[in-house]
Design goal:
The protein has about 700 residues and is α+β, with helices and mostly antiparallel strands. It folds into three domains: about 350 residues, Beta Barrel (Catalase HpII,  Chain A, domain 1), CATH 2.40.180.10; about 80 residues, Catalase, four-helical domain (Hemocyanin, N-terminal domain); about 150 residues, Class I glutamine amidotransferase (GATase) domain (Rossmann fold). The protein contains 19 helices and 20 strands. The strands form four sheets. Strands 3, 4, 5, 6, 7, 8, 9, 10, 11 and 12 form a ten-stranded antiparallel beta sheet that branches. A six-stranded parallel beta sheet has the order 17-14-13-18-19-20, with helices on both faces. Strands 1-2 form a two-stranded antiparallel sheet. Strand 13, helix 14 and strand 14 form a beta-alpha-beta unit. The radius of gyration is 29 Å and the shape is globular. The relative contact order is 0.09. The structure holds CIS-heme D hydroxychlorin gamma-spirolactone. CIS-heme D hydroxychlorin gamma-spirolactone binds next to strand 4, strand 5, strand 6 and helix 9. The site of CIS-heme D hydroxychlorin gamma-spirolactone has 28 residues, from strand 4, strand 5, strand 6 and helix 9.
């Protein structure tokens, strides 16, 4: 269709009639992949204007062939991810523990690339399913790449890698029907885990708020498996790796997660991108728990068992460094999609333990990249390339980019005296204890306690967190169609904790339990307060967003003061109006909205304020989206600031008589101060039992 618009100075109608720019600002000419300049990118070569397209049109064929091959197999797990570049800085030397130079020299800055991910869903799935989050960090050290391929949960479902394909098949969409995408709430997952008592501890974490984080900037990270540090003297210690978000770890509520997935399925990816883009760089402290062989032998469980954690009250987490994410990827596919992590990418001074889960991982990651990235040369892709020199005699293969010189592709050799050679300071595997001489397919008896730490986790939670775990189990098991699976799971919950089992049974409306006899009776371990997110949540608004629902006729000066107070806390204010065009303030100044009401439900904000004129409040009270906005903010336990006329809107939302300490009048400086003080606590937990019961 010919365009009716007038071409601008640099624009003209192409021969296809479309409005397009003939030359870019750079003055660079468009070419094919062979460098041939293209004169017409709008029309294929045809026999006459209305005739068939010609096979000789190499421009058309090259473009479409490339397009047809623009996707690679997505990761079998962790397919949906968001990446960022950054750096790591050490603030306490670990020279006494490890030869790894990036952990020795506090003046050194090490480049990193991080990829956060969900596990079960496909690459195009939503950001807020109930799921584990991957937390994979590639350190480009001067001794080679070190990949710390962890999760936001410190334990795992299974003890032995041989069960990994079963676990993943059970949680992924059911193979006959192709659903559910991206959800553990279905029969095959609960069937499998209810037959695997070793998964009970991890299930407690996955049913907790940890599995629905507020932001990727607000998750903890864990290496999960036990590794070894080895120092220059060859002395070895066990080590567990930790990441701590400087903004504090925070989660959303389940009802918010469900609604956020509808409102903005890229909620986490957008949040990470925006924060980095605006210079609010996400930061994570790096910590280690170190213990020697004797201390490890004294633990109540086996340090090689990935379903167990070491409470930090028992072995403190020493914070030794910080990671800052300060650059968004230039290209999602080239970097976030093609980055290839591998737990076997280690540097001298960090070694594996014999954890059987880790041992299996050491095979899987390299293997999967071969099919995902199409051959053995994926280390040459820029995001995977070590930043230190890389020289060896490996040659050829699909997609080889480097052009090695010379006739020598073997070692030892005498024909390339300047070629690379072995070095004593290179990677050495240190002897680590005795191995059994028998070949066995057996689980060690020290891996048998499947319930004690699950119970410890539940007992370490605050009341709201316990309620959420009960609700999560009730939701997930409520989706299970086979009653026998539900009964079996309740049997496990009864062993973990009677109140947990009672709460879930009540929420499900059933008394039918299939009793389970544990292989080993659980013990009562001391609670670990560090496991609770709420107990250690910092009172802060840093990195948070406050949504202000605004009508016409509001005092612009007051709005400015509110914005200033919010920004002084390191938070952001977002203005939501009925129309994206915005509102006219009382001084007749027009203020554009950041979001239209229809596109910004209150679930995407951490706290809210409602500022209206009498007329504006009446207008909003007739808008279902505004009523939902207010009702949801209250139901999601948010702190609500409001001016006088806005009370009418809350009343219309059915909230009259329910106002509590989290509903604050903001009409002057004192009101703003009280509001900010309360909003720093993020949620009014005491409100929860009044608005929602588990189940
Ligand atoms: Fe895994 C990807 C973390 C057990 C096999 N895994 C993958 C990623 C993370 C983890 C964060 C995404 C990396 C990225 O962003 O590209 N995996 C873990 C943790 C585990 C774990 C913390 C338990 C301690 N994984 C595990 C086992 C196996 C695998 C036991 C197989 C035996 N994981 C894979 C994989 C993936 C992967 C199939 C898929 C894509 C990839 O590797 O690159 O090889």
């Amino acid at each position: 269709m010919p365009s009716s618009r007038t071409p601008g100075p640099k624009q003209q109608h192409g021969s296809g009639g479309e409005l397009h720019q003939k030359s870019g600002k750079s003055g660079e000419n468009l070419t094919t992949n062979q460098g041939i300049e293209i004169s017409d990118n709008q029309n294929s070569l045809k026999s006459g204007t209305r005739g068939p397209t010609l096979l000789e049109d190499f421009l058309l064929r090259e473009k479409i062939t490339h397009f047809d091959h623009e996707r690679i197999p997505e990761r079998i797990v962790h397919a949906r991810g968001s990446g960022a570049h950054g750096y790591f800085e050490l603030n306490k030397s670990l020279r006494h523990l490890t030869k790894a130079t990036f952990l020795q020299d506090t003046r050194k800055r090490t480049e990193v690339f991080v990829r956060f991910s969900t596990v079960a869903g496909g690459a195009g799935s939503v950001d807020l399913p109930r799921d584990v989050r991957g937390f994979a960090v590639k350190f480009y050290t001067d001794q080679g790449n070190f990949d710390l391929v962890g999760n936001n949960i410190p334990v795992f479902f299974i003890q032995d890698a041989v069960k990994f394909p079963d676990l993943v098949h059970s949680v992924k969409m059911e193979p006959d029907r192709g659903f559910p995408q991206n959800a553990s709430a279905h029969d095959t997952f609960w069937d499998f885990v209810s037959l695997m008592p070793e998964s009970m501890h991890m299930l407690m974490w996955v049913m907790s708020d940890r599995a629905i984080p507020r932001s990727l900037r607000m998750i903890e990270g864990f290496g999960v498996n036990t590794f070894r540090f080895v120092n220059a003297e060859g002395e070895s210690n066990f080590v567990k790796f930790h990441w701590r978000p400087v903004l504090g770890a925070a989660s959303v509520l389940w009802d918010e997660a469900v609604k956020i997935n509808g409102a903005d399925q890229d909620f986490h990816r957008r949040d990470l991108w925006k924060a980095i883009d605006s210079g609010n760089f996400p930061e994570f402290e790096f910590g280690v728990q170190v213990l020697d062989d004797r201390a490890a032998a004294e633990l109540e469980f086996d340090i090689l068992d990935a379903t167990k954690l070491i409470p930090e009250e028992m072995v403190p987490v020493q914070i030794v460094g910080k990671m800052v994410l300060d650059r968004n990827p230039d290209n999602f596919f080239a970097e976030t999609e093609q980055v290839a992590f591998h737990p076997a990418n280690l540097v001298p001074g960090i070694e594996f333990s014999d954890d059987p889960l880790l041992q299996g991982r050491l095979f899987s990651y390299l293997d999967t990249q071969l099919s995902r990235l199409g051959g053995a040369n994926f280390h040459e892709i820029p995001v995977n390339r070590p930043r230190c020199p890389m020289r060896n005699f490996q040659r050829d293969g699909m997609r080889r980019m480097d052009v090695p010189k010379g006739r020598v592709a073997y070692e030892p050799n005498s024909l390339a005296p300047d070629g690379p050679r072995e070095t004593p300071s290179g990677f050495v595997t240190h002897p680590q204890g005795d191995f059994g001489s028998e070949k066995v397919r057996e689980r060690s008896a020290t891996f048998k306690d499947h319930y004690s730490q699950a119970r410890m986790f539940f007992n370490s939670m605050s009341e709201p967190e316990q309620r959420h775990i009960v609700s999560a189990f009730a939701f997930e098991l409520g989706k299970v169609e086979t009653p026998a699976i539900r009964k079996r799971m309740l049997g496990h919950l009864a062993i973990i904790d009677k109140t947990l089992c009672g709460g879930v049974s009540k929420a499900l409306g059933t008394n039918e339990i299939d009793p389970i006899t544990p292989a080993l009776e659980p013990r009562d371990l001391a609670p670990s307060p560090a496991l609770s997110l709420i107990k250690k949540a910092p009172a802060t608004l840093r990195g948070r967003t406050i949504g202000v629902l605004l009508s016409n006729g509001v005092d612009g000066g007051f709005l400015k003061r509110l914005k200033k107070a919010i920004e002084a806390e390191g938070a952001e204010m977002a203005v939501v109006c009925r129309k994206i065009g915005g509102v006219t303030l009382s001084d007749k100044i027009k203020l554009p909205a950041d979001h239209a009401l229809s596109a910004a439900p209150s679930v995407i904000f951490d706290a809210v304020a409602i500022l209206t004129s009498d007329e504006g409040a009446n207008e909003l009270a007739e808008e279902a989206a505004a009523i939902d906005w207010v009702r949801d903010a209250f139901g999601h336990l948010k702190v609500i600031g409001l001016n006088g006329p806005s009370v009418a809107l809350l009343n219309k939302a059915g909230l009259s008589g329910m106002f509590d300490e989290g509903v604050i009048t903001i009409e002057d400086a004192a009101g703003i101060e009280a509001y900010i003080r309360m909003a720093k606590h993020q949620r009014i937990w005491d409100r929860e039992p009044k608005v929602r019961s588990p189940g």
